[in-house]
């Protein structure tokens, strides 16, 4: 990806930002065990005729150096309409069937069918799926989730809890945002962390992702104060 000078935040910014000034662009630092930086995720997202779409490119060193491409599209109710992930070693393309009971598509060019349902959510190691779930929920909920394992993309069924703490201002490296604070808990393991959602973008995620650059375009959140 070509890079350009960065007027705000740390480091260079994606050069393609100049071609779509209405679309939010940003970058997360990705953290691994012990809070050590293990990569970056550069993203762009925007509402569209179907609902909302998020596209990102990930460069990571964990578990080994690799590149990922993530593409999520949701409908007006924030339900997954189509998603694709490519991690170099594996790739997956999924969309719900007409009754929403299964996710169908291809994993590594082989047909795949995953039990799903109209109240089930989808998760992967990216702030995008947390944003999608939080926007879909109306408040604190325990949910069934199809979780795709990082890199391998193996699907598993898990339980998660999203607790809506409330609205507050949160400081980030790119400014202070008015955001909704959620507490995420993986019920199978008990792992928990807080995240803050401003508009459609996770602007802070404790221990996993740090927003280090953001061009909000016309539709993204802007720092306050």
Topology:
Elements: E1 3-4, E2 13-14, E3 25-31, E4 37-47, E5 51-60, E6 66-75, E7 80-86, E8 91-96, E9 102-107, E10 110-115, E11 121-123, H1 127-136, E12 141-148, E13 155-172, E14 175-186, E15 192-198, E16 201-205, E17 209-215
Parallel strand pairs: 11-12
Antiparallel strand pairs: 1-2, 3-4, 3-17, 4-5, 5-6, 6-7, 7-8, 8-9, 9-10, 12-13, 13-14, 14-15, 15-16, 16-17
Structure description:
The longest helix is centred in the middle third of the chain and has 10 residues. The chain is globular, with a radius of gyration of 17 Å. It has one domain. A 15-stranded mixed beta sheet has the order 10-9-8-7-6-5-4-3-17-16-15-14-13-12-11, with helices on one face. Strands 1-2 form a two-stranded antiparallel sheet. It has 225 residues and is mainly beta. Helices cover 4% and strands 56% of the residues.
Outline of this structure?
By secondary structure, this protein is mainly β.
Reading side by side through the largest sheet, how are the strands ordered? 10-9-8-7-6-5-4-3-17-16-15-14-13-12-11
How much beta, percentage-wise?
A: over 45%
- The ordered H/E elements are EEEEEEEEEEEHEEEEEE
Low-confidence stretches: 1-10, 15-19
Provide the number of structural domains: 1
Radius of gyration: 17 Å
Please outline the major beta sheet: 15 strands, mixed
Mean pLDDT: 91
Distance between the termini: 33 Å
Shape, principal axes of CA atoms: globular
Report the count of strand segments. 17
State the helical fraction.
Answer: under 10%
Number of H- or I-type helical stretches: 1
């Amino acid at each position: 990806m070509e890079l350009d000078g960065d007027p705000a935040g740390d480091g260079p910014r994606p050069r393609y930002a100049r071609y779509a000034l209405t679309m939010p662009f940003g970058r997360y630092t990705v953290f691994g065990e012990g809070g050590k930086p293990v990569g970056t995720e550069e993203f762009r997202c925007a509402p569209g005729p179907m609902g909302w779409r998020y596209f990102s490119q990930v460069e990571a060193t964990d578990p080994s150096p690799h590149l990922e491409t993530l593409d999520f599209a949701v409908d007006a109710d924030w339900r997954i309409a189509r998603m694709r992930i490519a991690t170099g070693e594996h790739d997956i393309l999924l969309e719900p069937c007409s009754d929403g009971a299964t996710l169908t598509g291809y994993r590594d060019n082989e047909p795949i069918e995953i039990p799903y349902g109209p109240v089930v959510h989808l998760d992967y190691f990216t702030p995008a799926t947390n944003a999608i779930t939080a926007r879909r929920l109306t408040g604190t909920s325990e949910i069934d989730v199809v979780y795709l394992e990082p890199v391998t993309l193996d699907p598993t069924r898990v339980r998660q809890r999203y607790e809506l703490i409330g609205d507050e201002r949160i400081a980030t490296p790119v400014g202070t945002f008015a955001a909704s604070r959620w507490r995420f808990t993986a019920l199978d393991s008990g792992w928990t962390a807080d995240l803050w959602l401003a508009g459609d973008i996770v602007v802070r995620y404790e221990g996993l992702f740090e927003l280090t650059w953001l061009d909000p375009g016309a539709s993204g959140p802007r720092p306050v104060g």
